[in-house]
Structures are given as C-alpha cells and as structure tokens.
Amino acid sequence: xxxxxxxxxxxxxxxxxxxxxxxxxxxxxxxxxxxxxxxxxxxxxxxxxxxxxxxxxxxxxxxxxxxxxxxxxxxxxxxxxxxxxxxxxxxxxxxxxxxxxxxxxxxxxxxxxxxxxxxxxxxxxxxxxxxxxxxxxxxxxxxxxxxxxxxxxxxxxxxxxxxxxxxxxxxxxxxxxxxxxxxxxxxxxxxxxxxxxxxxxxxxxxxxxxxxxxxxxxxxxxxxxxxxxxxxxxxxxxxxxxxxxxxxxxxxxxxxxxxxxxxxxxxxxxxxxxxxxxxxxxxxxxxxxxxxxxxxxxxxxxxxxxxxxxxxxxxxxxxxxxxxxxxxxxxxxxxxxxxxxxxxxxxxxxxxxxxxxxxxxxxxxxxxxxxxxxx
Length: 375
What we know:
The chain crosses the membrane at residues 36-60, 72-93, 113-131, 151-171, 196-219, 271-291, 303-325. The protein has a two-stranded parallel ribbon with strand order 1-2. The chain has a single domain, classed as Up-down Bundle (Rhopdopsin 7-helix transmembrane proteins). With 375 residues, the chain is mainly α. The chain has helices spanning 9-12, 19-26, 32-62, 69-87, 89-98, 104-137, 146-164, 166-169, 191-246, 267-294, 296-299, 304-329, 331-340; strands spanning 259-260, 365-366. It is built from 13 helices and 2 strands; from the N terminus they run H-H-H-H-H-H-H-H-H-E-H-H-H-H-E.
C-alpha cells in the first residue's frame, strides 16, 4: 500500500513525469468536504469494527461451550479485523483528512506489512472455513476438531507473516508521492516489485476466490440434491399416511422420515454471505493495485487518487461487515450480545418459552455427532 516518492522516481524504476502529468495528478485530489466525510465515516467504521469483533472474541473466550472449531476460526477472523481497525485504519483516516502522510517512511513500511498481514490472515481463515464446510456437506467428513483448528490458525499466521514480511524488509521501495498522499501501491517497472504485487493479488484474492467459489458451487449442488430427497421422502410419507388412514389403522405408528443431512448445512448460508462480502470488498482493491503497479498512465491520471482511496476504503469495510453478519445470522451471537449490554438497552423483554422448538429435530434429521457450531 505504498507509492514511490517523486524525488526517487529513478530509484523506483519510474520514468520522470512531465509537468502536465504532475498538474493533472495534483487536480485529482478529492474535495475537502468529501475527504473529511470519508474520514469521519472511517472513524465510525473503526468503532463498530472494534466493538463488534471484540464481542466475538469475548464470547468465545468467556463461554467454554462456544469454543468449537468453527467458533475458534471466527474468533481469529474477528481478532485480525480488530488489529486492522486499530493499527491501520486510524492512520488512513488521518491521512485522508489532511492529505499528508506525517508518520515517516519507516512507519509507512510497517503499516504496509501490518495491513497485508491482517488481511492475509482474515482471508486464510475464510478459506479454511469454506474447505471445512465443503468436507462436511459434500464429502461427509467432519475432521476439523478444536485442536486441529488451533494448528491451522497457527499455520495461517505463519504463512501470512511470510508473505507480508518482504514489504517490511524492503522488497519494494516505500515512499509517498506528492500526487498520492497515502501508503498505497504505486507504479514501478521493477520485476521484483511487479512479481511481489502479483503474489499479493494471487494470495489475497484470486486463489481464495477460486477455491471458495468451487466449494460453494459443490455445496449448492449438494444442498439442491438434499432438498429433492426431502421432497421425495415427504411425498412418500404423505402417501403412506393417507393409505394407512383409508385402511382405518389410525392406531399404528406413522412412518418416520429419516433424512441424511447434517445440521451444519445451516451454516452454509452465513459463510456464503461472508464470501460475497469478501468478493465485493476485495475485487476493486485487487484490480486497482494491479493497475497501479503495471499502468503508468493510470497511476498518473487524475482518476487515480479518488479510485485508489475508494478501493482502500471498501477493503476496510470488510472489518465491519463480519460482526454485522454474525449479529444478523447467528442466534447465539445475538443472545450473547444482549448479555453484554446493560439491561436499560433491552427494548423488548424476553418472552419465556418462545425459543423452544415445537418439532424436535431428531424426528426429522439424522444428525452427525458434532452439533456445536454456532453458525
């Protein structure tokens, strides 16, 4: 997320821009009111991202019943979003409001490394969750235990650190351009810089997107086939019941419908929404990053500044998106949030007995042994 300084263009492999190009680049800055508004919205995003993801981590930490494998992964995803909100977003908000990076070149490299570290970790966790849902729903293999989840979490942190560390040790030359007062990816003709940018794009978006898309297409096909089985079993059961009634054998036990489908299929919709949010938030940023490094014309164009800021702002939105989805989709998360809130904020009293199921799931589904997932 960093660009080369105008005084070191030759060292970065850039051609010296003409005076006309620099004047056009200077006019690309957004209006002050828009920049201040975006900075204010980003401060609100920081607050929501910190509080929402903090509650996720607190719930998993304080409630032993919530420490299933999937919840440990969600807590790790929330922790990476907290770190992104606290260690990256505030500096972007200040720079966006003041149009000047005043934190030094050294911290520019550090902020770039931290940004990609937390982003890569969040993407890795989403990838692990997607593969886990694929194995459970499509392959009927539930192999992810809390112990294995912890091992995968440690491995994902190590891999994310290895991919993001080159930006700190100087694989790329960090700097801030006059026309780009941000630590963002800038144009370079260096093969190492371009190769590293492609590596980041592949690791952050293209590989996770491809794997998750394939997993979800397979899951959708499996869910569709299960729905057809449910319909067929229900139709056969209705015919049998009707036949028994006509014979006058009402005292006999009705045939039960056993459906070979895991309860964890319900988690698929939630994870699918997270995948859609990931795609919407990260596709623009990936495209802009590649264009910034490979296209000198785009990098020096008047549209570069607003487009790059918009893509960066959208990528930060993912840190706020996840806890909102948890609160919307996960009943246990909503209940835990209400427990942490003061009683004065509870608008509606809890009605006893309403949360009980009228139909026992065991009468309908044949479930796997592990049903602890909260999603």
